[in-house]
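Handout, section 4.2: multi-component inputs.
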Amino acid sequence: MNSTQTALQFELDQQSFWKSLSLFDWVWGFIVLLGTGYAYATYAPLMDAYEKGILISAGASLVALGWHWKEIRGLSLAVFLLSIFGISRYVNGLADAEVDFFLRFLVSSQSAIMWMSALYVLATVTYFVALFGRSDFAGKVASAMTWSATTMGFVGLMVRWRESYLIGIDVGHIPVSNLYEVFILFSIITALLYLFYERRYQTRMLGGFVLLIISAAVAFLLWYAFDRNAADIQPLVPALKSYWMKIHVPANFIGYGAFALAAMVGTAYHIRTRAEQRNSTGVAMTLPALDILDDLMYKSIALGFAFFTLATILGALWAAEAWGGYWSWDPKETWALIVWLNYAAWLHMRLTKGWRGTPMATWAIVGLFVTLFAFLGVNMFLSGLHSYGEL
Amino acid sequence: MGSMNLAITLLVALSIAAIIGTVLQQNQPYTDYIIKFGPFWFEVFKQIGLYDVYSSGWFLFILFFLVLSTSTCIYRNAPNMLREMREYRQNIQLKTLSNYSNSYSWELKQPMGDVQHVVQKIFPLNGYSARLKEENGYTLIAGMKGGASRLGYVLTHLAIVFICIGGLIDGNAILKAQQMLGQLSPETRNIPANEVPAISRLDASNLSFRGSVSIPEGSSSDVTFINYKDGYLVQELPFSVKVKDFRIEHYASGQPKSFESDLVITDSRLEKPLEQTISVNHPLIYDGYSIYQASFSDGGSDLELLAWPLVGGSKQPRKIETKVGDDLPMNLYKQPWVLETSNFRLFNINPSKDPTKKFENAGPSVQFKMRNKTGEAKEYLNYMVPVDREGALYYLSGVRSSPAEEFRYLYVPVDEASSINRFMAYLQALSDEPLLREIASRENFTGAQMLSKDAAQFNEAMIRLTGLFVESGMDGVIEQLEKNVPLDKRKDVKELYVRVLQQMLGAVYIDVLTKEGVDVSLGVDEKKAAFFDAASAAIGSIGRYGSPVYLQLSSFVHHQASGLQIAKAPGKNLVYPGCAMLILGVFLMFYAPQQRLWAWLESSDDGVKFVLAGHAIRNKIDFEKQYNQIQAQFNRVLTG
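Output:
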């Protein structure tokens, strides 16, 4: 065997995906397998074929996700342990939330969500400190805070899911059924999308911008919880009692989250463009280069668009079951279509006409307002079938 | 036609039309629009089709053009795209390759066969499938990955065409065409389905529709109603649907938990009737028709009402029997009235003011209109059982002049036995002139200093004022006084009369209590005093109540009706595959980008010249990273 062949063999061996997995990766795979197996063995008699399929593919996806995005492993384990801990503290029913120390200050859904809110706001400030102070350390702290906030958000939702069953076995449902719950979902999904790209592009400079919109969502959430008592768990209206809700709503919020991310990257794009025009050497020049921002904007709109398409179609399938037609021109549906058309036009302009730069950044920001109207404005100003989260 | 500018224009036009349709509430009764816009703009908007934007001619026209534009786009580009998908670009020239930004050239000592072998290993290692071409003097290995993204393009655009055509089939464009040809005209009268003339009927051969029908428990229907313009159409069904039973379940907190109907489908094509229970989210699909649980309403509950006279007349209430949905002509005080009962509700779950409870049940209620001989009507909402308000119990009766208004409530206080009797006795006593005269002379409100002749005159005035109070309330009394008394004495006189009227009312009330057998020698307790205030306030507002009787719901037999939506949507056979294509296409387009690599090998003076080049149309930044890794790999293997 000559040297070229040896080098080739070495290269082929190097590239093998399985060989690139670390010990922790294998442990991770084993833990998830164990958990999935346990859930299957315990609850299989209660599940139908779909649910079994979903459980198994959820396990497989979690392993794959953890292998490709290493931080997810830590997040999942933390969410798992804290949620199990929270649930186990409920012994005598919901009243424990007022009595038990851990529930009261850490892991009841209300407390966890307060932690999430506080951490997101702190992370926003810290990201800006990192940006203006050009401090790498502050950036790392901000990232850690965002991860922790996301963990607490997930824990809040998980424990809330359990709490809904403690109210009454027929009341229990997945916590994605009203405006309060989906705002939490929106915050954690947007944060996760951002964290993914933070690692992918190795830059923390965008954190402040993205977290700004999460902080705004948190502010709304707190107002909504305290002023309107929205944090109370309500039983589902008959139209929402459907399996479709479990997939339609999260898919929608991946879309909304990605669009929000794109708009904030668009804002950063504008700031960086101004700075370049003035030949500035200020803070704005530490933002990622324009072509990277442009690329990131495209990627998040593409991701958002793909999931928004999926969510809208899932919604149509659900509507066919619940309202007697896959499309009723209900205001929410119509605005979903408008959002979809808007981003379809954006993507066409970029992909076929090759539009780039500031107009596209501005359009992404305008797109967020259109999305915001579809998400909130419709509930506030228009009446229709989708009146689940009224203000 | 297939141009991008046209497509974008159409997308924007579609968005704007869609926005109009959400801002202006669609398919409301025409009278609502007339009230909102006035007769002129009502007509203008009607002509443009703004009350049903999504099936207006111009909207369908935009949609039609979008389909045409997209189809043209597919027709022009799809063959190319599909060729590109399989095309490895093996005719590329060395010059082109060297001009690509992702390109590198090596001079190697290894034998040609070794280098070729390395390329054929490294390409697949990175996910590229490879094709080899040997020409005069050179060898070209062309690699490609993500060809499916081109398929994604074709799928998404084809999906749009599928979905739009399917949607057009299921929309009401066909009805519109039939109406334009004069074959169809909506019915606007409220008449039984079998009396609707043929011009407003659609037979079972109609391809697609979405209608609704309300079927009382125990009854069946073989038609459904389609709301169309300012009226409706009757859609005939090839089978009949019977609602055997309708059930509502509630959560412990009182909110509705589920709506269910037991249906029986009778069809001559079936050996035996088909029985199935449907609920929200669980429709019945039968013979291409889908039957959904959409709503519920009253199915003609039998009601027994007590009509208490509010003006003069007899003391005993009259018993009335009617049914929800019926119009009952009555003769009250020699005037013809029509009682139109529109709804009965078994529960009224309202948010609770009590912080320990979320909701409370205010019990059954009946909603009806009282129409007088001029055709004017007020609408009423009467509760069957007394409702607690700040510690005291009242019979509530809401009244409004139009559906756009909120109900304003009359609070009728109840006595210790929770009955309306004391209130009615008090009201009747106030209309009983001989009794008032007797009380006035017994109580001698004016005191001793007045002459007996003047006192008698004063008492007569008081009796008239009491009558006026019952008729038009305290406001009416004050208005009357202000009209008749000179300005300079007005204040004193007003005070005097109002004070004496209060005493008069109090004396009448005491008289009512005495006749009831209550001992009033030590005065009345707080509850009875509060009753007096509430009853006087209620009587003071009877003038504005608008009905000569108060209808008290005394008993009922509840019959419910299940609101079903029956639809036939063959367009979904295009729409659903279209949706699947759209999802698949979008993900392929974004997540399987097409990327190409070429390896050009050519013998040189003392070895091999090897040119590597890569090209991608999209995601260039990612591709550049990937290309650099591949280039480094080659470098390590071939020069390491």
